[in-house]
Design a protein that fits this description.
This protein is mainly alpha-helical. Among the domains are: 8-88, 434 Repressor (Amino-terminal Domain), CATH 1.10.260; 92-252, no CATH class. It is 67% helix and 0% strand. The chain starts with 7 loop residues before the first helix and ends in a 6-residue tail after the last helix.
Length: 462
């Protein structure tokens, strides 16, 4: 499902044609941009040969022509695939909450295009701790949804059929993500968002359609965030979560916005930012208090419990898990948003297993992990199986831990997920500190044939 990176030449040609320009018009705009900077260009024939060479992929614009192209086309270097023009793309690396719906549309569209063109500074960016605080606070105190941006008169008109198409396509990518991991089809999702969805956001639509569109695109962008997080591209993932939160706000979808904060909490815990993770989970719960559903509240309590477990606050963790269990018991699936119905008893058991493992209650972790296999969510089942293996290891049952870990490796054979590799790497570190038996030697021999195990790359097996 992976889509190849769009070549710079194709990006330049598409940008020119999207404006209805011929090469002669682009030459005029380049001259105007150069004159504004006190520079001069060679003859039209010479510039035209350069443009043809760029667009045919025979060369790329240099440090002189690159900035002129960005200025003439009113696009960032990253959007044009000019990854060497880093000085012109600071806004792409800004992890802040968009102040307006129009700013959100511009920001998320630029993110999609820069990601599509593999803009290295963005892909290698790190999460911003202040961004979590800013986003949760600004969302919590936000007024009623502001007026949506109005597209140009020539822009395409979006309707409910377009919204439905985005929703159906996003659901398809979500299934691929669940079955094969975030690294499998992430680039294809971004390609779809950049090429098909961005024009809808910049189009014309009635108020009701616009709200539905923004809510649906928020869900799509949330998925992009989850897939990027699963690929351990954490700065990029955080930026997608931030944009999704703003889109959900403008889509008047309070419940989805709470779920996005919950996703941020999940990522913050994974990154070791436990205090921030607990705060984000509480903000999600507080922010949807008027429209909360039992399943959403259960998930938010579970995310808080995950963070508290990592801080070592056993009592607070157990109280949060108890609240999650209580909330889930009162749910009515028919009243829940479709996108949260996956969170069931098995998912909550998996969250509890993580918690008890992290507070060193190995036997309780084993009990919960054994109830966490859904049979329908491959990656979630992989995580639960690895938590079970790790819990057995911490309980001193090394042979059973190895047996369960092999089950996980078989289960995850098709997964392309950096997070899955991190779970295995943690297990491998713990196993290396144990005494070795025939069972462990057999485990290392069998594990060595699995792609995910090889990817842990922590040295040779004993």
């Amino acid at each position: 499902m992976e889509t190849a990176q769009q070549p710079t030449g194709e990006s330049l040609r598409n940008a020119r044609k999207a404006r209805g320009w011929g090469q002669a018009r682009l030459i005029r705009e380049l001259r105007r941009a150069a004159e504004q900077q006190g520079q001069a260009l060679p003859t039209d024939a010479s510039v035209k040969r350069r443009i043809a060479s760029w667009e045919n992929g025979h060369s790329v614009p240099d440090e002189f022509y690159g900035p002129l192209l960005a200025k003439a086309l009113a696009m960032s270097g990253a959007e044009l695939g000019l990854n060497h023009l880093t000085g012109h793309d600071a806004e792409l690396l800004d992890a802040s909450y968009p102040p307006t719906s129009e700013a959100a549309v511009n920001a998320v569209s630029q993110l999609w295009r820069a990601d599509l063109n593999s803009y290295e500074p963005l892909l290698r960016s790190q999460p911003s701790e202040p961004a979590w605080h800013e986003a949760s606070l600004r969302w919590l105190v936000a007024p009623e949804p502001s007026e949506l941006p109005s597209g140009a008169k020539a822009a395409a008109r979006a309707g409910l059929a377009d919204v439905a198409a985005v929703k159906t396509t996003t659901d398809m990518f979500a299934k691929l993500d669940d079955r094969f991991g975030g690294d499998h089809a992430r680039h294809s999702l971004i390609h779809y968002l950049a090429r098909d969805v961005a024009p809808l956001l910049s189009g014309q639509y009635k108020e009701a359609v616009g709200r539905a569109l923004f809510s649906t695109v928020a869900e799509s962008t949330l998925l992009a965030g989850w897939m990027s997080y699963d690929a351990c591209q954490h700065g990029l993932a955080q930026r997608y979560f931030l944009q999704a939160l703003r889109l959900a706000q403008d889509g008047a979808d309070r419940r989805l916005a709470g779920s996005i904060l919950s996703a941020m909490s999940h990522q913050a815990t994974f990154l070791g930012r436990y205090t921030e993770a607990a705060t984000l989970a509480r903000a999600a719960r507080m922010g949807i208090s008027g429209v909360a559903t039992p399943t959403l509240m259960a998930q938010f309590h579970a995310m808080e419990a995950r963070a508290l477990a990592r801080t070592g606050d056993v009592r607070a963790c157990e109280l949060a898990l108890a609240e999650a269990t209580k909330a889930l018991e009162s749910r009515n699936t028919g009243d829940e948003p479709e996108w949260i119905t996956y969170f069931d008893e098995a998912e909550l058991a998996a969250e509890a297993a993580h918690c008890f493992r992290d507070v060193n209650s190995a036997r309780q972790a084993v009990a919960h992990a054994e109830n966490a296999m859904s049979g329908s969510h491959v990656r979630s089942d992989f995580f639960a199986t690895m938590v079970l293996a790790d819990a057995h290891l911490r309980a001193g049952d090394v042979d059973e831990a190895c047996r369960v870990a092999l089950d996980a490796l078989d289960l995850g054979e098709q997964l392309k997920s950096a997070r899955c590799v991190s779970y295995l790497a943690e297990f491998r570190r713990h196993l290396a500190g144990m005494s070795h038996s025939a069972a462990t030697r057999d485990f290392y021999a069998q594990a060595g044939d699995h792609r995910l195990w090889i990817a842990t790359d922590v040295g040779s097996s004993p």
